[in-house]
Amino acid sequence: MPKLKVYVKNNQTEVKVPVGIRLLIRRCCQAVLATEKFANDAEVSVSFVSNNEIRNLNKAYRNKDSVTDVLSFPLTSEDGTTEINPDTNAVQLGDVVISLETAVKQAQNYGHSLEREIGFLTVHSMLHLLGYDHETSQLDQRIMREKEESVLEKLGISRDVTFVTTGDKE
């Protein structure tokens, strides 16, 4: 079984990183690679940033002056081939950047747990690092969404079982 090294960094102070999130991220990354039958050792970096920082990155790299939830930066050579870490011989997939502030807000808006939201954003970005792009066509969008839900279901954090209940209000 191929090895996966996931570097998780917290580069923001606005939201406390919940216990267990780093393990969840690693599980999500591993599940995507297993689902996609990725046969090589791999490395990926996942960073939590503030809304301000992700807005700056979105503007600099996508020419969109707005906050977003997650950005993916695949690491490929100029000729389109993958980068290999010479020390470990692992494929360097790239970087995932998550706005933890936006993840909290979206989890509340969608009525599910923060764990579900971060899991979804991680799986979504990992698929981008592997070459999937939901912005190219409606078919590609559907394929990517089905893969996301399939991976999350395998991890036990599918949409159907992760909704937060607030109880009855009087």
Description:
Strands 1, 2, 3, 4 and 5 form a 5-stranded mixed β-sheet that branches. The protein has helices spanning 21-35, 51-62, 100-110, 114-129, 138-154; strands at 4-10, 42-49, 70-74, 83-84, 91-99. It has a single domain, classed as Metalloproteases ("zincins"), catalytic domain (Collagenase (Catalytic Domain)). The chain is built from 5 helices and 5 strands, in the order βαβαβββααα. By secondary structure, the protein is an alpha/beta fold. 42% of the residues lie in helices and 18% in strands.
Keywords:
five-stranded mixed sheet, single chain, globular, disordered C terminus, 170 residues, 5 helices, Collagenase (Catalytic Domain), alpha/beta
SS summary, helix count: 5
How can the largest sheet be summarized?
5 strands, mixed
The mean pLDDT is: 90
Number of β-strand runs: 5
In the CATH scheme, the class would be: Alpha Beta
| Percent range for β-strand residues | 15-25%
- The stretches of 5 or more residues where confidence is low (pLDDT under 50) are 161-170
Overall spatial form: globular
CATH superfamily: Metalloproteases ("zincins"), catalytic domain
Query: Looking at CATH, which topology would you report?
Result: Collagenase (Catalytic Domain)
End-to-end C-alpha gap: 53 Å
How do the helices and strands follow one another from N- to C-terminus? Answer: EHEHEEEHHH
The helix/strand class is alpha/beta
Oligomer: single chain
Radius of gyration over C-alpha positions, nearest whole angstrom: 16 Å
* Count of discrete domains: 1
CATH-defined architecture? 3-Layer(aba) Sandwich
Percent in helix: 40-55%
